[in-house]
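Changelog-adjacent note: as of this version, every example in the card shows the full chain rather than a window. The one below runs 114 residues end to end.
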Amino acid sequence: MRILLDECLDRRFANSLSGHSVSTVSSQGWTGLTNGQLLSRAQHLFDAFITVDVNIEFQQNVAAYDISIVVVKARSNRAEDLDPLAPAVLRALVAARKGTVTRVAGPSSLTEQN
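Full-length structure tokens:
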């Protein structure tokens, strides 16, 4: 599977997605593009887009794009916090359908409220 990691994700997370071809937004030269521009370009080269942007499905007409989107909710966007979620992300990638958003969250994503 061809996977694109959003620029807000630690690029080292790609190492946890073994068995797939993983690129980053910055390696594609797409840094700074809006989500709409990014999805328009990515849908022609990638099967899935991984992001931590929990609002993407409310800001974009996801069904209009020929790419699946996986939203990861972790304590932070650092590899140390993302890596434990890699098995769940890999399962989500297999089950995800193009034009849809799949969410992956781990217990470490919960934050205490005062």
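Structural remarks: The longest helix spans residues 86-95.
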